[in-house]
Amino acid sequence: MGFKKTGKTFLATKIIEDLVGDGYRVAAVKHVHHEFTIDTEGKDTWRMARSGASIVTSISPNEMAIIFPKQTHETNRDELLGKIFQEEGIDVVVYEGFAKLYGGSPHVYKILTVRKSEDIGLIEEISPPVVAVFRLENTSLPEIGVPVYGPELSKDFFNHVRRSLGLVK
């Protein structure tokens, strides 16, 4: 979790690479703040969704997308994602963003990303557990009682994340 341009995507991809490299099945969920659709107005899947289909799936030789036209972030996203991830045998889900949606959850382990010292203030808006702070640049930060890492990610960082999540092999 963090403000725009603080390294959230960079950090998420590094965590995913590390966990996948060690044999974990990882899912990634990206929070998009603005209205967004992977669908294209007038195309076949768009027309199928507008005709009332509850689920529209597009399958190509290189990927598959499942569209839930009537689902928004206010609906049962957790239940829906949980079912999909369970069926796929996912070990870890990496969420990028979602400070407002999951920042208060004691069941979500958080890593705060910062670029400048003022960004650390977001930690007051999220509840524990906060596993670590990742600073995108060598910014000096006030002591907050949470380990600070970055911008070079060491094995210590990945080991700390795994221990925090109970994934020590």
Word description of this protein:
The chain is globular and about 55 Å long. Helices cover 28% and strands 18% of the residues. The strands form three sheets. Strands 5-6-7 form a three-stranded parallel β-sheet, covered by helices on one side. It contains five helices and seven strands; from the N terminus they run αβαββαβαβββα. It has 169 residues and is of the alpha/beta class.
Task: Describe what is shown at a glance.
With 169 residues, this protein is of the alpha/beta class.
Distance N to C terminus? 26 Å
What is the radius of gyration?
Answer: 18 Å
Number of strands: 7
Order of helices and strands: HEHEEHEHEEEH
Q: What does the average pLDDT come to?
A: 87
Enumerate how many helices there are, as a single number.
Answer: 5
Task: Note the topology.
Blueprint (H helix, E strand, L loop, with lengths): L7 H14 L4 E5 L13 H7 L5 E4 L4 E4 L9 H11 L4 E5 L2 H4 L7 E5 L15 E6 L12 E2 L5 H11 L4
Parallel strand pairs: 1-4, 5-6, 6-7
Antiparallel strand pairs: 2-3
